[in-house]
Each structure stands twice: as structure tokens, then as C-alpha cells.
Input
Amino acid sequence: MNKAQTKIVVMGDSISDCGRAKPVGEGLFGALGRGYVSLFDAMAQVDHPEWGLRVVNMGIDGNTSRDLLARWETDVNAQAPDLVAVLIGINDVWRQFDSPFQPETHVLPDEYAANLRQIARQQAQHSYRLVFLSPFFLESNPQEPMRARMDEYGALMREVATENGIPFVDLQQAFAGLLQNFYPGYLTWDRVHPSEPGQLVIARKLMGAVESLRG
Amino acid sequence: MNKAQTKIVVMGDSISDCGRAKPVGEGLFGALGRGYVSLFDAMAQVDHPEWGLRVVNMGIDGNTSRDLLARWETDVNAQAPDLVAVLIGINDVWRQFDSPFQPETHVLPDEYAANLRQIARQQAQHSYRLVFLSPFFLESNPQEPMRARMDEYGALMREVATENGIPFVDLQQAFAGLLQNFYPGYLTWDRVHPSEPGQLVIARKLMGAVESLRG
Amino acid sequence: MNKAQTKIVVMGDSISDCGRAKPVGEGLFGALGRGYVSLFDAMAQVDHPEWGLRVVNMGIDGNTSRDLLARWETDVNAQAPDLVAVLIGINDVWRQFDSPFQPETHVLPDEYAANLRQIARQQAQHSYRLVFLSPFFLESNPQEPMRARMDEYGALMREVATENGIPFVDLQQAFAGLLQNFYPGYLTWDRVHPSEPGQLVIARKLMGAVESLRG
Amino acid sequence: MNKAQTKIVVMGDSISDCGRAKPVGEGLFGALGRGYVSLFDAMAQVDHPEWGLRVVNMGIDGNTSRDLLARWETDVNAQAPDLVAVLIGINDVWRQFDSPFQPETHVLPDEYAANLRQIARQQAQHSYRLVFLSPFFLESNPQEPMRARMDEYGALMREVATENGIPFVDLQQAFAGLLQNFYPGYLTWDRVHPSEPGQLVIARKLMGAVESLRG
Amino acid sequence: MNKAQTKIVVMGDSISDCGRAKPVGEGLFGALGRGYVSLFDAMAQVDHPEWGLRVVNMGIDGNTSRDLLARWETDVNAQAPDLVAVLIGINDVWRQFDSPFQPETHVLPDEYAANLRQIARQQAQHSYRLVFLSPFFLESNPQEPMRARMDEYGALMREVATENGIPFVDLQQAFAGLLQNFYPGYLTWDRVHPSEPGQLVIARKLMGAVESLRG
Amino acid sequence: MNKAQTKIVVMGDSISDCGRAKPVGEGLFGALGRGYVSLFDAMAQVDHPEWGLRVVNMGIDGNTSRDLLARWETDVNAQAPDLVAVLIGINDVWRQFDSPFQPETHVLPDEYAANLRQIARQQAQHSYRLVFLSPFFLESNPQEPMRARMDEYGALMREVATENGIPFVDLQQAFAGLLQNFYPGYLTWDRVHPSEPGQLVIARKLMGAVESLRG
Amino acid sequence: MNKAQTKIVVMGDSISDCGRAKPVGEGLFGALGRGYVSLFDAMAQVDHPEWGLRVVNMGIDGNTSRDLLARWETDVNAQAPDLVAVLIGINDVWRQFDSPFQPETHVLPDEYAANLRQIARQQAQHSYRLVFLSPFFLESNPQEPMRARMDEYGALMREVATENGIPFVDLQQAFAGLLQNFYPGYLTWDRVHPSEPGQLVIARKLMGAVESLRG
Amino acid sequence: MNKAQTKIVVMGDSISDCGRAKPVGEGLFGALGRGYVSLFDAMAQVDHPEWGLRVVNMGIDGNTSRDLLARWETDVNAQAPDLVAVLIGINDVWRQFDSPFQPETHVLPDEYAANLRQIARQQAQHSYRLVFLSPFFLESNPQEPMRARMDEYGALMREVATENGIPFVDLQQAFAGLLQNFYPGYLTWDRVHPSEPGQLVIARKLMGAVESLRG
Output
């Protein structure tokens, strides 16, 4: 993928979306949204102008791994990317906690793993590379129920990544430092959506993964 | 206070405010806001029409015990109430966690207790009765840092109440049942502002205290 | 219907709707609207967490029994409920009084009874139970013309309920106490839409009926 | 007052106001509001162009006789009118019914009569004539509590008018015909604010009174 | 047409429309718009309640006689009226003066007469009666070019009305008195759309025609 | 006034205002409004860049000559202009026609002339030159009442201009050509506010006057 | 094309569009937008009323020559014009500079020339004449990269115009004077969209071309 | 300034402001605006949590060095900062180019240097340190007139910084790399306000200066 112009599509939920342009999150005037995707794009243009990196944000608020799969053909493959970053799983877990009476909205571990495996298979069938970013919960106590559940999903993603040779970024671990220094209420209003320091952490981690891939 | 018409003023923060009319939260068309104060008023009109209860909501978003004291004369005494319910302390604690770099917004335990004592003295100087409602944090783990801090403030309020013969309602305890059955994310989006089930719990507890007072 | 999770669909008009989410009134953030349905849900979660009650509000502003019938398949049966509460009839009557020149909007007694009978038959064909809540008019004088007409419709609903073994809640009677103590103008701005005390009365009556059903 | 140009000021509440221009309700583009005042002005320009009638609407939403008195100097006398029409009393009564717990908003019969007497005295001290329009309630049953109370106020206004030689228009009686033919819900949404047929009745009655005065 | 309930449909342009409800201008809450149609309805309910008159406003801003014809089937015949009032022709003329370069928007005299004749034929084919209201221009000088042109169209309408035994109301003549007493700028901002005195003139003339028809 | 930078202030009513920036109409982004002032400024920058012309629009909607005088010190003299263009008189006349019952809003010929004379005297007391632009009415018939009245005011302005050696631009005459070719309805919606062709006529005439002054 | 009425369609991008009416930019009340098209229309009505010129603005924000071609049939030919003015090419160039990573949005020189040639062929197949207005960049330094690129496109347009006998207006050259006297920041906020002085330059140049054509 | 908590105030224009909270730009929910100040704060919390850095954004849109001086006492000294970053000069220069006719808005080099010197003297009188960030223009050609002028101001700031031992950050130079790789139109819509890549450059440069100061 070391050609003159590289196209990266980011797939995810509201943590990626952040008000991006619809239907395609690419271009000037805030089209990338106001989160880590835009920050990552800025870092790439400043630090790696020779990459000719083209960033497309396809995150959608509220998406689960089930939703990603359903729109993969139109939102990823049709874009003909060189690289696809996937940050998913928060809503798969969250609905189990905030909507206990609506089980049809819950994506349980087995389905989550199956969905990720189907996404992983796409890589073999197309010419692009995948990067997996783990879901996370901005809570420092690993025994807290929703944190514990999110860790379980992170482990599943790592497993699928390993099986398929996909670079895996452990964002929950990446937040460990911040959570040691700050109470979650400072970093996020709902322990799910990080404010700017958290977005910076994700952008840097994604950049690290992309730099590794480009060797 | 068993006269034909009873006037109760509610003092507090956003948990009481809930969009009440300004400057005085009394009257028709949502003037009581959409939280426990309005629910309490509905219960009183349905169950105790003979009380002739007149409810005035004076909660203001973001208030601490410091803010309550500053506007006590104009917002409580000028209303000539028979009864004053006080639910305060969440923001005294919260700012210590979500705004660690702005210490001037923190109301520390000593000041909190002193503010409550000054409020308690008002009772002696005027003809009304006070009811104290403890601050709470919708988190089931008592070791969680902000929950632990909130419990500390609840204990201080209980202490001041006991010293002054003021009925004390332990709302943190009142929420124990709900927290056993539901994850906080179902009951509130930020562990501070309860949705309708939580508002119902507060309204019922306040009603219990008022019924006791009226014997 | 004593299984682990119980789903209740509420069918009705603006008294049920109260700004619920569309097309399906279920979930967080005010999805149940701001009326008796949301209050009923709060009571259930606080008092009967073991029910695992799932509440879906399908009320629509301005509906008559004719409208309910027309959308019964998609709005009730497709939800696969365990229980269906029906509060209908106010607009069947009101149009006869406020739109005297538009007879095509009037649902006369014969049609009202026929519509209810068709709804009652649904119960036999599906696995859910029905609860009927009578229409009401917040006027204390039973000779007042619109009140008298509404009483006529309430009697018809009771008749259909009895014929079909459907629990019947007489809301007009439930409001008798409030109307003795307060002038209608305090309880409602148009004698049709109750403010919070009235919503509380309905929620409690519905809860009573559901508790009876669950034995 | 038969001079070339005649200026009439209308004092009242929301029934007169109807969205008039503020602070002075005079001029083109809806400055007279969309109620009987504008209709009366239209009738005068069509039927009596020789009067050179200048109409000023000084009604304000929610006003009682107490409020009228408080702004009489600035809103009436400062306008130097030839004629002043007064339609007041609805809110004096209504608050007693819809805000039973706020007695400070109630204008009781004694105060109402006293306020009207003070207004009547203005006539002697200035060069203008007064016309009194009775308050009314769009309810056909004279035993209905709020209707009965309104009739009591109408009788008081008639008494003050007679004492002071002020023309008195009985609007409650003027609505008798409409109420015989139509249910209140067709004529008004709250039995207080008449829709266009009711506004036409008031405008015609006011015109009759002004025609009599001009002989 | 002297049956218990009479339905009248008003067809026209912005002078009739006045913000009526769409798609059908009938019912409460301003559905008739704020012009002569609503005033006419008020007069009918007050003065002729025994007519049981049902008024439907089908005026649309900017319409010409060509537009009326195009929607006659759906907007008039489908309503099954007893009576149809037609006030049309202002835009047929106006476009010739304000849009001289867009001849496709001009409805010339021959077409205007032909359109009216086609409308007249509808009467024979259906069970309703027609009333024609002439177009007008609020200008007192009959030599003024647009006034002269409008008079020409008024004469054509009178001709078609006479041929077909349709009652004809000469509104231009009806405004003669107002125009003698007031400058057009007081009665209308553009010499086309009358303010309330002008609307009153139209409403009264239409009422006169309907009273004659009902004999 | 042939110095390197020339500052021109335009005083007038809504014909000059056209949505200019407040309180001072100078600068980028539409600060000059969307009328002849902005067009005049564009012509000056394109055709006479060497003038260094600085244009300030001080027109205010609805102003009469009386209003101009009242704010002359703050709005003109405080700006220290080299040149002041005055286009005033339309509202002095219009109010006599559209508000016949409000004589206090009428500026009669004597006052108009006196106001202009007082403005003329300012020229002698300060270092700037004046240019007078006549009021106009977009009506081709000189016998039409408001046109005739406006001509009378134009003649008064010409008289005051001549007495004081002030350049006078007869805008009514400037519009003669347009009015010969087009009906007023094409040039303006109310015969007062010209659309773009009319604004172009004014801008060019003002430019002619300024070019003459600069020799 | 010297017939009594001449219709001119303007095709272009945001420099022509300027908020014109959609779908067809013709008529009163700002339908021509607020740019050179409206100014050109005003000049024509004032200076050449005998032309009977009918101006239709079909500019659309963001269009390139590729977009113009795609809508030529419906937006130009269907209008049956006598004359078509085309100002296009800014976005063909701009996207190459502001969206370097989205090559599918770039219209390169070869395609630009081909698109213009296809437009030129339309002239032979229909009865209208074309006028070409060159794209421009408000930058005075011809070595500046985007200015240099725009000049290249202007040369291509001139070439196609010459080949096909189409009048060609060099707008870049027309702006030379303004750019000598003023910094681009005064004439435009982005060096692309001219403010009023620039719009005046375009309008005059287009008028010159049309005058030449009419001989 | 190596104490436990460090407070930094940022003074500047719209490049710093970016929609910050008013009157004081500190706290959660976007209070720091969406530009380099917020990015800088995120970097500090992630990389230097031990600093306890408290960031206050006091930038105001459109400010020049003259404006900064005028509000220095209230907006800087009253905040009792440890460090003050100053990024100013863009508007001092820009007004000379975009508002050539309003010389009172121009801050010429002499005044600019004098203003900076007065700011520098504040450092001696208070306990805080200053950091100067040079103004810049996103134009790669140093001969371009506004770029050349901005360089002149940058040199003046460097001079004042050197005289007073104030750390100086040359932002124009910092942008050299980006300008080599990208056309200004990609980095900014007006060559003044940088989009995210530019904001990142500033944030990093400011971080470098602060890190140096803290040793």
C-alpha cells in the first residue's frame, strides 16, 4: 500500500462520527467531524505529507458491529480503500446495560465475534488492509460491570485480529494513564464519549498503527 | 403548620430545577419543572387535597450549598414558607471530580457543613420547618471515588440535621433498591440526574417526610 | 403472562401520546412521552423490578377508535405484546361538539361499540390480554352535554369489556375525587388533557389493573 | 365628542390584546391585533368614515382590573382619548378557579367593584367618555361555578356603570344566542377566548354603544 | 339548497387563501385563513345558525382562472358542495403588468372568459350553485392602466355570469365608497390585498349573495 | 474636497438603509446595505479609484426630515464627512396617505422646508458639502394624489437647494424614462421602494452629482 | 436575435447563482440572485428598454464545466433562449488546489476544453447565440500557482470561442485595473467570489458583449 | 513557575478564540473553543498530567494589539496567571489591506511595537512569564504584499521579545513545511484562519515553548 495516494476509511460509531458530513465524510469544512478522525488527518498532513493520505470518515452514531456489517459493501468496499480502521463494540455492550428490556438491541459476545470474523474475511477478498481498534469504557475499576463486559469484547476483538493477522490497538489500555490521573467525569460526560484529551489518545494510537503498516 | 393552606419551598440544584419557571417556580403550565417537585405536587393534590398545599420550586441548575446560602433571603425567606425542603451537595462534590483545575469551584466538606449549619439556623429565626434531602450518586459501588465522597457529604448533612432536629431523608439509601436491580446507565445518563423512576423515588420520600411532619 | 419479561403496548390518543418517540414509543430520553405511560413505567421499575416490564407507547394525537382499528395490525400485533392497554373515545365524542359541521369526523355510539368489539376479538386471535380504560371528561356536572355523552361512551366500553372478560378501568369515576376538590380549570386547560395530578391518577389505575392481572 | 376626529382607547386583557403592537396598539400591519378591536375599526371605517375614528388598542394579556388601574395614567390618560372602552374581569375571576393556592392573584368582588369605581372617577376628571363591556364565560349553564361567579362580576360592573352614567354592554347576554346554538368547544378552546364568531359579537356590541353615544 | 346542512366552497387566489389550512381549508384554529372567508363564516354562524353552514376555503396564493380550472375536479367537485363562490382574475391581470417579459404567465381576456365559461358549465353538470365575485384593483382612478384592465375583466365575468344565470357581485363597485374616503395606501399595501376594512366589504357582499340565493 | 481621501455620508430613509450595518453603515460584508449606496460605492471604486472614496450609509427605515434633523449631530457631524448626500421626504408625505388618523406622524410642507433649511445651514457651519436628492413616487400620472403631493415636496427641496447653492438631483424626473416603459408594479411593489433598476438610476444620478462637485 | 423580445440564459457556478430562485431564476423579488446577473438585468431595463430583455439565471453553486454539460438539455435548451452566457471554470481549477486528495473532483484542462467544445456545438444545433466569459482568480501575481492555472483555462476558453466564432470576454483582464488599485482582500474574501465592485465589472462586460451582438 | 498547579492564559484574536466560552474561556463542554488552545490543553493533560495545567482562553475575534492592551488588566492580570501566551498582529495588518478607507482601524508598525512593549512591561510588574507567538499569513510567496507586511510585524515581535527575554515562537516559519506541500486553499479558506492541520502546528509549537520554560 505504499503507492503515491493512500485512502483510509474509518468505520465506527458515534466516537468516530462526531458530526461528520453525510453520506460521505470527506472534504473541507468539518467533513471529517470533530473527533479523532480529523485529528489523525491533521497529523498525517503535517507529519507525512508524502503519504498523500486521503481520509474518509464513515462512522455513524449508535452503530454496533451488526450495523457495520450491514453497510460494509456500500460504505467500505464501494470506496475502494487501501486501509480500513474499525473501532466498534461500545454500543454492542452499552445497550445490554441501558436498555435491559430491549434484548433485540443487544449484540452478545458470540455475535460480536462472528461479525468481526466476517469483517476480517473482507480483507482477503479485497485489496485493502484492516486495523482493529478495541472498544473501551472510561472507568478505572476493571470490576465495574460495564467495564468488565467491555474488556471481554476487547479480548474477543484481539482474538479475531490475531487469527487474521490484523494489527490490533488496545485503546482501553491506552487510556490507562489518563484514568490514573483523572476522574472519568473530567474526560467524558458519560464514560463512553471522550473529550479532546481522549480523542488525542485515539488519534495517536491509530497513527502508530498506520506508521507500522507503512514500514 | 397544620393550617388551612401550607406553602412549601424547594431549594436545590438541577435535580430540583428541571426547567421550572423563573424567577419563581409556581403555577400552571410546567412552572414546577418536570422532575420530582412536580410529581410531589401531583401526589399532594391527589392524596391530600385537604392540605391546600402550595408548592414553590426554587431549584437552580448548578447550585452548590454556597449558592443556596447566597440567595436564601430573597428566594426562601421572602416567600414566607411553612416548610422548606433542601436537596443540595451534588455540585459541591462533582466539581472536585470534573473540574480538578478550578479549585475555586470546589465546596469542601468543612464549608459544606458550615453552609448547612447556617441554613439550619434560619429555622430558628423564622416560623418555617426544614427538611433535608441527602445528596446522592447513582453508582452502586461504595468504594467508587465520587460515590465515596458523596457518602461523606451525606453523612455531614445527617449530622447537621440531627443537631438541629431537622427531618433527614437518606436518598442514597433510597436508591439502593433501584441500583441493585438496574445498571446506572438505565437510571441516568451521568449518574447524577435521575430519569423518571429516580424522580419518583425522591418524590415519594419527600412525601413521606412531609406526612410525618403533619402527623 | 407471568414470564420473565412482559411487554405492554399502550394504544390511545393525545392523552397517551404526550410527545412520545415515533414511530415506536420505547426507550430512553423521553421516548415514552411525558404523561401517564412514563409514570406507569417508573412505578413498575421501582415497585416491580422482577416483572421485567417493557412498556411501548403507541398513542397518537387526535385518534378515535376508528383510527386505532386501522393501525392495529402494524402498531399492536406486530409488536407481539403480552398486554395491551386501550384508552380511547375522547375524540370520538369531542368532534361531535367542536366540529358540528363535519359529520364525517364523528364516531357515533354504534360505531364506537363496533370498533371496540373488533378490538376485543383480537385478544382471542392472539396471545395477549387487553385492558380497557374508559374515556372521560374533566367536568363535575354529569348533566353537562359533553360529559353526559362521554358517560354514554364509557358505559359502552364497560359493556364490551364485560362481554369479553376484559378488565375495565372506569377513569371518569377515578377522577370524581379530584373534581370534587378542584375546579376543572386547575386540572386541565380544556377539560380533556389532564395535567400531572390527573396523569398520576391514570397511571395508578392502570397499575392496579396490571397488578390484578399478574395476581 | 362629535368633533372631526375621534380617538377611542380600548383597555382590557387578552380578549382585547390579540397580539396588538406594543407599546401602543395603533397603525397598519396588524397593530390593532386580530380580535374584536380590529373588526370594530374595520366596521367604523366602512360604515362611518365621516367619524374620522382613531382606534388605539391597549389590552394586555392576563390583566385584571387591578392591573388596568395601575397603568391607567400612562396607557389611557396620556393618550388623550375622546372615548375609552373597558372590557375587564375575566382574569379577576379565573385565577380563583385555576390557581386556588395563589390567593394573592385573586381579585375578589369588593376589590373589583372598587377598581371599577376608581376608573369611573377618571371620567369626571378628564374630558373623555367611558363604555363598560361586561366580562363573560362561554358556558351556557348559569349554575356552573365559574359562570355563576362571572355573572356576579358582570352585575357589579353594571352597578358601577349605572351609578356613574356609563353605557354598559352585557356581553354575557350577547353570547346567549350563540351558546344556545353551539357547544362552547366550537366557539372557544377554553370557554374564555372567543374565536371569530365571538369576536364579531363583541365588535358589533361595541359599535352599537359608540353609535348611541354619537347620537 | 335549503337543506339542514349547506356546504360552501370558496375558490380563489391569495385574497381568499390568507393562510388557510392545506390541503383542505376547513375546521378550527384558523383553518379558514384570516380574511373574508373566516369573516363570512363568523357572520353565518352568528346571524344564520339555522343554515348549518359548512365553509371550506380552497383559495391558493397566486392562482389565475387557468389554475382554478386545472384543480376544479379535485378541489371543488370532490368536496360535493351545495354552493361555490369564485373570486378570480387579479393575477390574470397583474402578471401582465409586473412580469411583462414572461408572457406565458399572462391570462389574456379571451382565455379568462373561456375559463369562466368552462367553470359555469360545471354548474349544469353537478348539483351546486355558483356565485361570481368580480376581480378588483384598489385604485380610484378608472383611467389608471391596471385598474382599466381589471374593469375589463370584471365586465367579462359579469357577461359570463349573465349568460349562465349566475349571481354576480361587483366588488370593484363595492369598494367605490372606501376609495372615495381613503387613499389606497391606507386600505392595502399593494392595491391588491385589502386589509380588514376591505375584507369586511367582501364578506358582507358574499353574505348578501348567499342570503338572496336562500331566499 | 479634492484631497486624497474623501468621506461621503448618506442620510435618508429605507430607500437608503436597505439593511445596512448598525450603528454605522461602513465596511465589508454588506455593511452598506443592498441598495443604491452600495452600487454607488462599487461605481466609485471601479471608475474613480484615485478618489479614495469612503462611503458611510446612515439611512434609517421610516425616517422623515424631522428624524434626520434629530440625529444630525451624532450621525453626520460626528462622522466628519467631506460630503453629505440627503435623500428624504418620502415618509413625510406617505404618512399623510396611509395613516390619515395619526396627524402627529405627518410632516407638512412648511415643516419639511424648515427642516431642509436647518440642514442647509449645517453646511455653512462645517467643512462639508451637501447634495440634495429629491423624494419621488413611482407613479407615472402626475395628477395621482400622492404623486402630486410628492412633486410639491420635490419643488420645496429644489427651492431650498437653490437658495443655498446646494447641488440638486431631481430623482422624480430621473425615473420618468423607466415609468414610460414599465408599469410601476414591475419597478417596485409599493411605488416607493425601487428594485434594482431603480436603485441603479439613483446610484448613477448621485455619481453624476459627485463627479460635478469634484470637477 | 433582434426580435421584440430577447431571452438570455446565464449558465455558471456560484459567481452567477448568488442565491437565485430555484429551479428557474427568473422573476421579481430577488429571483435573479444578488450578483452580476441582476445588475446586468437592471442595466438592460434602464438603458435598453426597447430590447424587451428577459433574463434567466441558471447558475448553480459549485458547478464545473462537467456539471453544466450534464444539465444543458433541461436547463438551457428547454428554456428556448436567444442568447446563452457561460461563465465557468473556477471550480474546475479550484478543486485541484483545495481538495488535492479527491482527484475525481478535478476537471483537468483536456476535459475542460472538451466540455466547452461540446457546449459550442449546441449553438449550431439550436437557434441561439453563445457568449463565453472567462474564469478568473482575484490575484494580481500571474505567477501565483492558482492564478497561473486559471489563466491556462482562460486561454483554453478563448481558443474554443475563436474556433466557433463565439464572442469571448476576458474577465481576468477586466479585473486588472481593480487589482492594481486594491488588494484582493478588499474585493473578495476568498479570491474567487467578487463583492459588488467586481460584480459591476462583470455586468458591464457582459452588457458590452450583448450590445455588440445586437449591433 | 514549577508549582503544583500552573495557570496559563492565552491572549489573542479569532485564531485563538474559535468559539470559546465568554466571558472566561475555561472549563468543560467546549469552553476552550475548537482551535489550538483546546488541542494544547489536551496535549498537556495527556503528556504532562503532573503539571496540573489550567488553561484559560481569552482570545476575542477581530482583536488587534491595541484591543489586547485595552483589556489586559481585566482579562489577564485579574486571572492571576503563571504564564501568558500572546498570539497577535493578524488584524493589525489585515485591516490595512481589506479596509483601506478606514485608517482608524489600522495598527501601524510603530504602534504595534509600542503595544507589545507595554505588554512586555507587565511581566516585570507581575509574577507571570510571557510567551510571544508571531502573527502569520498562510501564503508561500514572501513577496506577496500582505505576507511581506506580516513578516515585518513578525520581525517587530521578535525584536520586542529579544529585548525583554521573552520566548518567541516564529509561527510563520513553522508553517513553511505545510505551505511547501499544500496550496493555502487546502489549509485555510482565507489565508488567515488555519484548519485543523494548522491548529496542530500552533499547539505543538506552544507546547514546545512551555516545555522549555518548565525545564
Summary: DSSP finds eleven helices and five strands in chain B. Chain B touches chain C at residues 28, 34, 38-39, 41-43, 45-46, 49, 177-178, 181-182, 186, 189, 195-197, 199-201 (CB under 8 Å).
